[in-house]
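Support request, please re-run this one:
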Amino acid sequence: MTLLIASVHGAIPEKLDGADFLEIRIDGMETEECIEQLPSILKASPLPTVLTCRSVDEGGMFEGEEEERFAMYQVALQSDSPPKYIDIEHESLTRHPLLLDSVKTETTGIILSWHDMKGRPPDLLQRAAAMQDVPRVDIVKMVWRARSIRDNLEAFDLLQSRQQPMIAMCMGEYGIMSRVLAPKFGGFATYAAVEGLEPTASGQPTVQELRSKYSFDTIDANTKVYGVIGDNVAHSASPMFHNAAFQAANKNAVYLPLLIPRGWEHLKASLSELQKYKALDFSGASVTIPHKEEMIKLATSCDEISTTVGAANTITIQNDSIHANNTDVSALLALCKEASNILILGGGGVARAAIVAAKNLGCEVFIATRRTEQSKSLAIEFCCKVASEETKNIDTVINCTPVGMAGGNDPNGNSLHTLAPWFTLDSSISVLDTVYKPKTTPLLAMAEAASCPIIHGEEMFRLQAVAQQEIWQQT
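Re-run finished. Output below.
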């Protein structure tokens, strides 16, 4: 069983529901303050504790001499409630080889740790071997900042080849996979933040997220892995929706945010590595901005709709093949049944799906993009028109850009102002924004002020996500 270690600075939190251990970080405390308060802090913990004094070089706040750190450890060891483990940095041990003799006791074990705040070092494997050769160490902990989601796979390699209990994780925005999937690969523990408190390391999910959103306790070697692929997935609602759906269907699967930067080479390399890593059981993904069009090039096969659209928002992986679908179209078909003349804002994968849906409904379609050349190209490809000041009788506007999205490049922007500034809304025009966070975007706020019927992006999100689940539940 992989333990869940809640990590906090100094004081004991009021709520620790769901954690197995508590890491108490003392590197932010003054030495005298720590010596005075540490016994009572340890005694107040409702959980077994890990005591850590992380150095600045390894991402912590301790800048003192080794003797000061040793003095704090001794206070903890001599207290009435000594920690279950003390975290000792491997670098400290190389400088002070007799340190273990002074801190390891019958009641307190040693976590031998190493952290690289910059990235994956060239000597990672040699360091792993050296750390596992250190005698009288209970757990080896190796953490580095991921440069891409592919770094997580190397953490899994370390766990699978471990010679003793090991923690191997990646920090930063690319590293959540290593934290969530630790149980799949036999990790001793995962570190997590406490809800409402500042994380002690970059990329830590909270205890609540791991237990609830990701069903951490149910993950095992046979768990299938799904996710949402995009270059801005931190605010995605997809993990919450799809993990809940997998739980309801009793499917042994977990769904993760899979951050892949913009660009064909990033997508190709990352998807290839995830697919080839057989122990991962990577089985499918939602695809979002900016990879929907590029994903078609990587697919082994495509359904008719995604081929027509030229973009995919869903992939299923089986037997080394990638099958592409597009559930955006069916969602838009359901939401735009009453439309006749549609103004589509944007020219990416969602816009292409909106054009196909509108054409299938028999609508007249007008396209507005940032680049006139793109609008003209789409108009020729799909037999529709480029929007202009002469465009009349629009009854539906669909925003297919990320403008107005929380966490995006232009969260306060209004796509209508940007792409069709000459267009005026009135109460006869319905407005659909495919952005779902926030619920009311700047565009929808303007539409409400003009008394327009509005369709929130979360309605489209739900419909396309339900269709994705129907596809994946069949595999």
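The chain has a mean pLDDT of 95. The chain has three domains: 3-219, 226-326, 330-460.
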